[in-house]
Amino acid sequence: MSFLTITKHLARCATRILKRNVFSSGQMPSKLTRAQMATFTYVPDTAPSEYGETMKMNLFQSITNAMEIALESDPTAIIFGEDVAFGGVFRCTVGLKDKFGKDRVFNTPLSEQGIVAFGIGAATTGATAIAEIQFADYIFPAFDQALFAHVAGLKIVIPRGPIQAKGLLLSCIKDRNPCIFFEPKILYRSSVEEVPTGAYEIPLSKAEVIVEGNDITMVGWGTQVHVLREVATLAEDRLNVSCDVIDLRTILPWDKDTVVQSVQKTGRLLVAHEAPVTGGFAAEIASEIQAECFLHLEAPIERPFFLSLVTLISSGFIGIIYHLSFVRSKISLSSISFSPLSFLKMTSFAVVTSASFEYPTCSCFVFIINSNYICLFTNSHCRVFPITVQALLFI
């Protein structure tokens, strides 16, 4: 097998791991548990001994601990956001108001523009402002649809686990530049590590090589790091290919030197990100490395990705692809002909459903893609839940 083929094979492996619980054996189970919806195997880190004593924490506990240290060590530090005083929807600020008072830990109105504007104003007057945006989806009104990575001076950080989260968050809080700290929701409780109890900082804009190899470089951040670890294990076991796995940790400004050094050694690069291929940050990395390492590359740079899908309905709706066998098990489609002509005549149909948990009722719009896949758009979050069909209405 040529190394060009191996690079493409690893890209396919990464994509399959991303999708394995959704398209396992071409079918979907009738019910997916929260654990089954995880798309990677979490690998805990070990803290360096110089960080001191440790305590078992998950991601949200390590974030809480980091903010507690920041409030204790910096009298100008304040934390604010929607429901922050109550502990936050993910409990990341639980207990902080009771310990530090309502003047330093407080709620804000439901206005992301207001939260960000207040943070900017507080910072310009000398305060250390820690503004929480409840969900990443809510940030858009605060920056008028501009892309984070296009804003000079911002620092964007994404941790892969609790140890990293605490050290990187403390570095963000002490940094005098505005930092955006993304917290992977799936890791809040699923990731557990022995986290140092004292204060420590992990340098921003410094990547970490977490698996060393000689044949291919694989770069990711956040949860994708764990996907790449699995791919590296598969490559070693099945292909006898050793991989360099790099966690960027900070994606703006990103550590180009570490990636360049690795690619000059391996001659190959794969970049994984949780985004469509068009306009994703992996393209920026690929462009930079192609220019810097042109004479060292022995194969094209690969970017495993999900398909770029067109959203055909109003904003606020999210597209999900289900395998047809799953839908057939939930919806009686025997009367529907799946010939290409029928797709042209029947552009869409609506399914009124009743979810078994969390959402008493919700509406789904179903668009047929081909005989194997259909696309479901729902006004709920991107969740897979058991569906009991009450009616099938053709539009």
TrEMBL record:
Keywords: Membrane, Oxidoreductase, Transmembrane, Transmembrane helix. Pfam families: Transket_pyr, Transketolase_C. GO terms for molecular function: branched-chain 2-oxo acid dehydrogenase activity. The chain crosses the membrane at residues 305-324. Gene3D superfamilies: 3.40.50.920, 3.40.50.970. InterPro entries: THDP-binding (IPR029061), Transketo_C/PFOR_II (IPR009014), Transketolase-like_Pyr-bd (IPR005475), Transketolase_C (IPR033248). Residues 57-190 form the Transketolase-like pyrimidine-binding domain. Its cofactor is thiamine diphosphate. Its EC number is 1.2.4.4. It catalyses: N(6)-[(R)-lipoyl]-L-lysyl-[protein] + 3-methyl-2-oxobutanoate + H(+) = N(6)-[(R)-S(8)-2-methylpropanoyldihydrolipoyl]-L-lysyl-[protein] + CO2. One of its GO terms (biological process) is branched-chain amino acid catabolic process. This is 3-methyl-2-oxobutanoate dehydrogenase (2-methylpropanoyl-transferring). It comes from Acanthosepion pharaonis. The lineage of its organism: Eukaryota, Metazoa, Spiralia, Lophotrochozoa, Mollusca.
